[in-house]
Specification:
Length: about 425
């Protein structure tokens, strides 16, 4: 198990390019299951989660070739409908295979994904949706079996207690593309990753109306074709670099992500006095040194276009850098605060009140050993390490490798001092 040593105190400077969006990729790779034709996906980040997903697809029978760095070719000729527990338990995004396998084979068996450190993550909305399409759902020895002789379009509502479901929307849209008749999904997720998936499905020949809105209408087709598609840039990676630049009083230009996908965070940052130049044509965001000008903030995480939960942990680090009190309320995963205790080890002043973090700045952090618990918590610990005095050792850094491509190298190119070490 690797750990990293971060030597804090440098102001980040320079240019960084973000990789393809992890959370778009999983569903897009799964979309290859919808056809027996050749599919090519470009700008796929080199990540542990992508490796797992590729392995999962291979065990289902998909022939997969890496054509070039970040470019994969997939051909799903003869398929199995049964996903192995060993791979599914390592990655919740495995659920994304359900919709396309149902569309294609009319059956799928998937070990129920277990708990997760960021909170309870049920898939009840996915399963209710499959039932609406005419499938029977049963649970036997921890394995969910979904079967339907043929899928039939229907009205589906995907709004839950915490808003819509992102992977649930991906699953139901993909299943509906091969269902008989029309499916109308209400309270569909509007995340850019879902929009990008819908565009890819259109390239495959799917008929989808309302893309980007909470109401999606899908006219089912008998067959879909292959695709050659380039994944959008990762808005969460871009947001993480934005925050890294601000907290180090740096000057960083971030390329490769569409600023329109970052409206919520850009809005908050501009309101608190951040000096940022956005170029929508060039798709770049430039952050100027402005730490001393920043004012405290109050944010609540919400489904898109609200503030993304996947930037909540990183915003906690920004909050402790700004003099005064900032508040962050988590509405998607009310228990997603595993990073707080670790940040406190570095000297951060944070109080948790239910699902609200009260953050007090300015920060006076000093390096220590801290433990990463999940992907975004790891990113927050890296950020804290960048501003802590002395050396911060982030353990269990494999969590970070699930979702950030070459994060150490990218930060080091901006002037950070990060070194990877073996944990023993
Ligand atoms: N929910 C239900 N029932 C369901 C599905 C979801 O109650 O059937 C609840 C969840 O418990 C949660 C909320 O609805 O409170 C939203 O969950 P959602 O299903 O939207 O999450 P997801 O699709 O499992 C994706 C991303 C997450 C990201 C969330 C929210 C992927 C592979 N994962 O998860 O990404 O946090 O949407 O935006 O797309 C990450 O990248 O670090 C990450 C966790």
């Amino acid at each position: 198990m690797d750990k990293v040593c971060i030597c804090g105190g440098t102001e980040l400077r320079g240019k960084v390019s973000v990789s393809g969006a992890k959370n778009a990729c999983m569903a897009m790779l799964a979309a290859a299951l919808l056809t027996d034709e050749i599919c090519i996906l470009r700008n796929v980040p080199d990540l542990r989660d992508v490796d797992f997903f590729i392995q999962l697809l291979q065990t289902l029978g998909v022939e997969i070739k890496k054509l070039a760095p970040n470019t994969w070719q997939l051909k799903a000729n003869s398929l199995s409908s049964q996903a192995p527990y060993e791979l599914v338990r390592q990655m919740r995004a495995s659920v994304c295979i359900m919709g396309p396998l149902l569309g294609r084979l009319h059956e799928v068996s998937l070990p129920l994904p277990g708990g997760c450190v960021i909170g309870n993550r049920p898939i009840d909305l996915h399963l209710q949706g499959f039932e609406k399409l005419g499938c029977q759902v049963s649970l036997e020895k921890g394995i969910i079996h979904v079967q339907g002789k043929s899928l039939k379009g229907n009205a589906i509502f995907l709004g839950g207690r915490f808003g819509s479901t992102v992977t649930g929307t991906a699953n139901l849209v993909m299943a509906a593309t091969l269902a008989n008749g029309i499916t109308v999904i209400e309270s569909a997720a509007c995340e850019p990753e879902i929009v990008d998936l819908c565009h890819l499905l259109q390239q495959m020949g799917a008929d989808i109306e309302g893309i980007g809105s909470p109401q999606l209408t899908i006219h089912g087709k008998e067959k879909l074709h292959g695709f050659d598609y380039t994944v959008i840039g990762d808005r969460i990676e871009a947001g993480t670099f934005l925050i890294a630049s601000l907290i180090t009083n740096g000057h960083v230009k971030i390329d490769g992500a569409n600023p329109k996908h970052l409206t919520a965070i850009l809005h908050v940052l501009e309101n608190i006095g951040a000096s940022i130049r956005v170029d929508t044509k060039e798709q770049s965001i430039e952050v100027f040194p402005c730490l001393d000008a920043l004012k405290p903030f109050e944010i609540t995480t919400l489904p898109h276009p609200g503030f993304p939960t996947d930037l909540q942990a990183q915003m906690c680090v920004l909050g402790i850098c700004i003099p005064g009190l900032s508040l962050i309320t988590e509405r998607i995963y009310p228990q997603r605060f595993m990073h707080v205790a670790e940040l406190q080890r570095l000297g951060a002043r944070i109080i948790l009140e239910g699902s609200t973090a009260i953050l007090q700045g300015p920060a006076n952090l000093s390096g220590a050993d801290v433990m990463a618990s999940d992907l975004r918590a790891s990113a927050a610990l890296y950020l804290a390490g960048l501003i802590a005095k002395g050396e911060t050792f982030v353990h269990r850094v494999y969590h970070l490798d699930r979702g950030y491509e070459n994060f150490d190298q990218k930060l080091n190119q901006l002037g950070a001092k990060i070194q990877r070490l073996a944990d023993n």
